Amino acid sequence: MASVEAAPFMKVGGLGDVLGSLPQALRKDNVATTVYLPWYRGIEAPHIEPLSFLWAGKKETIPVGRLERGGIAYQFLGVPELDIAHPYKQANEFQSFS
């Protein structure tokens, strides 16, 4: 699952609640889930192998962090445009998430 927010790491409203609880509910049904989130400032996670991909014809490499909580894997993507403390208080938030 990928989201802009998921409790307990970033929660603003209902989306954060759902992405915080849905993986736990799926786990009870033996469904393994990984949640992918932007690596916001203040989230501390150990670095794992960086992620490389082509974007607009150019190779990009971003840092990736990983934590496991309550049997759920969380991976944090260090996208430079999302190097922010809060997802919805930026002047360019529409550009950041498009």
Report on the structure:
With 98 residues, the chain is α+β, with helices and mostly antiparallel strands. It contains two helices and four strands. The chain has a four-stranded mixed sheet. The chain is globular. Strand 2 and strand 3 form a beta hairpin.
Short structural description:
This protein is of the alpha+beta class and 98 residues long.
DSSP, total strands = 4
Q: Give the H and E element order.
A: HEEEEH
Rg (C-alpha, Å): 14 Å
Query: Strand order within the widest sheet?
Result: 1-4-3-2
Helix content: 10-25%
Percent in strands = 25-35%
Structure keywords:
98 residues, 2 helices, 4-stranded mixed β-sheet
Q: What order do the helices and strands come in, and which of them pair?
A:
Blueprint: H1 14-28, E1 34-38, E2 47-55, E3 58-69, E4 72-77, H2 93-96
Parallel strand pairs: 1-4
Antiparallel strand pairs: 2-3, 3-4
